[in-house]
Prior knowledge:
disordered C terminus, 74% helix, three-stranded antiparallel β-sheet, mainly alpha, 3 strands
Amino acid sequence: xxxxxxxxxxxxxxxxxxxxxxxxxxxxxxxxxxxxxxxxxxxxxxxxxxxxxxxxxxxxxxxxxxxxxxxxxxxxxxxxxxxxxxxxxxxxxxxxxxxxxxxxxxxxxxxxxxxxxxxxxxxxxxxxxxxxxxxxxxxxxxxxxxxxxxxxxxxxxxxxxxxxxxxxxxxxxxxxxxxxxxxxxxxxxxxxxxxxxxxxxxxxx
Length: 205
């Protein structure tokens, strides 16, 4: 695993996306390589930040002080979220690929995973800020918004859709993904809660 290459790609896609997307679009890779060399690492860092926030630092709440989740429950929560994020990334890429012809694009599953993974980079990196009280949530939200912009820039390059259709392609994909993602996470966490799998005991101070 070349971490220098990973860091360079993160910097490039966040700071100079307009020049980086053409480079990304022409790179030869596979879905497996994208997961192994990029996706699992960034999503893993995001999950680790969530664990630190919930179990080590704690979350400040109105009237309840600082809430923390126990170490074991917090670790389990982080791992489940990590796995769900990996699955959601694959589902989002499938959606991007499926919708491509509707917006004048070309179906290509690897290219779809590229545009999703590198667009999600902003959100994954920004989510590290959840360890910061108050500001962390705002930074994470800003990362998600910037990720949508990255997707808008990347779709014409990777999925070969006409630039004038990129806004609609982005909007439809994001709206469907938000609904599908909410359902996926809600169902899994509901099942976990009902089975007592999480043991989500928290305490305040």
